[in-house]
Design a protein that fits this description.
Elements (H helix, E strand, L loop, with lengths): L3 E2 L4 H4 L3 E8 L4 E9 L8 E4 L6 E5 L2 E7 L2 H12 L2
Antiparallel strand pairs: 1-2, 2-3, 3-6, 4-5
The structure holds zinc ion (ZN).
The site of zinc ion has 7 residues, from loops.
């Protein structure tokens, strides 16, 4: 699974959450994801849904997912950074 960490907020990481860019497997389009660890004891099945086409990319019993579409500029920057590797 593609999960690229672009976390610049060190303090958020302490609480078991992270921010990264994921790619919709259907459209191959990147989106921003905030992932938060669920509270132990009240875990629930969460769906990691593509913000563009609503495709369920994965499900988890450990994390809450908050997904947001990227702007055209961010999408372009994402592809550029990948091509330069
Ligand atoms: Zn999608």
């Amino acid at each position: 699974m593609n999960f690229y960490y672009t976390n610049t907020h060190g303090d958020i990481e302490k609480y078991g959450s992270s921010e990264g860019i994921k790619v919709c497997p259907k459209r191959n389009k990147p989106y921003r994801q905030y992932r938060e660890e669920q509270m132990p004891g009240c875990r629930d099945k969460e769906e990691d849904k593509c913000p563009y086409c609503r495709e369920v990319v994965e499900t988890s019993m450990s994390y809450d997912y908050h997904n947001y579409p990227l702007t055209d500029e961010e999408i372009e920057a994402y592809y550029n950074s990948k091509n330069n590797k």
